[in-house]
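Lecture 7, part 2: worked example. A protein chain together with aspartic acid.
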Amino acid sequence: MDKATTHSDSLTVAKFGGTSVADYTAMSRSAAIVTANPQTKIVLISACSGVTNILVELANGVSDSTTRQQRIQTLTQTHQDVLDQLQHPENVQDAIYGLLDNIATLAEHAASATSAQLTDQIVSHGELLSTHLFSQILVELNAPAVRVDIRPIMRTDDQFGKAIPQPDTIKQLATEQLLPLLDNNIVVSQGFIGSNSQGVTTTLGRGGSDYSAALIAEAVNASTLEIWTDVPGLYTTDPRITSAAKPIKEISFSEASEMANFGAKILHPSTLVPAVRQQIPVFVGSSKAPDQGGTWIRQSVEEAPLFRALALRANQTMVTLTSLNMFHAYGFLAEVFRILAEHKISVDLITTSEVSVSLTLDQTDTGGGAPTLPLQVVEELSQLCVVDVEQGLSLVALIGNQMSDTKGSAKDIFGALEDHNLRMICYGASPHNLCFLINEDEAKDVVRTLHASLLE
Ligand code: ASP
Ligand code: MG
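Predicted complex, written out as structure tokens:
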């Protein structure tokens, strides 16, 4: 048996998000989860909670040097607080101070000229910092932790801010560089960051650590992927919207993918893609309450209810394109999508009529913010059609099974919503999802109403 097969029998990849490594206490709790499971050999972590946001702000260019120093001070404090509680801070403090110095220098560059490449370089420091601290905490628990820089393994393309990983290369690099370490070590490494073929740092987009963990789990043929966060798994809807939201014990890959895609913020939308490719069961749980259980996401599950969950995504940008000329209706869609593809604009939802198409724009790059159509794209599209852009909309997605071929399901759904004005309804393309746009200020009410009538 080669190494890969030996490990795959019992190898868990665990990912801890920002709140699970927020400070010494959170890191210690997470480290205890790692040491409690001898199968956990690879641990990927996020930056300490709040750190990436500050790094993004610095990367966007803070010209006032006092403000810049204040931000660096906040970052220093976050990491110093952990250092102060270590038994042997001397093992990692030079590395931490070195990285903080780098941030200060790079933030000064960003104040005079920003770039997507520089942004990735700056924001990658969050994970570079947190992994030093976390591996030291494991070492102090007598665990054989080694910190590995994931960048030479997590190979991506050149799209800074939202780089596309290259799974085949990642598998090869992980086999060479990661697997040999697993016999005697627990590897601690960074989520979210990677590098292109020249070794230049890239990131996978905000919240990308989940995706990183799934890619590494796929690359090493892991038997389980654990995503540790601050909530005990997936819920029928965001419990902050309604206290009637219920935890989901087990859910299929298809349903969970729809949930992640449509705004259930608990998983990065791409996370399940590698897990599905390799059929790796995914566990989502809370590092604050590991004994409370969580959600298992798998290929096949025992129950497939008609209505499973509701997801809500704010900040939607809807673009409606109406053909200028009926003659151009022929090939119109092809032309529209050629232009969008050329500018690497990713579309989420789409509905069409004879001469018009409405679509929503995807929004996950590291810079953050609501998506907009670049001016040049508007100009190119305007040659072809009237371009109308609308914001202030939210997307509500209902996730379930066989919705499009179960009689009466549309009546149940739309009946509950008769007092609301729905925009752009997408129904039928997937048996697992029905979604629509609605004015932002009505969105939470709509979710509560639908939850009460379909899920309670
Ligand atoms: N630290 C990154 C972020 O805040 C990646 C992650 O947490 O998944 O977006
Ligand atoms: Mg995060």
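Residues 17-18, 46, 207, 209 surround magnesium ion (ligand 2) (CB under 6 Å). Residues 1-8 have pLDDT under 50 and may be disordered. Keep this in mind for problem set question 3.
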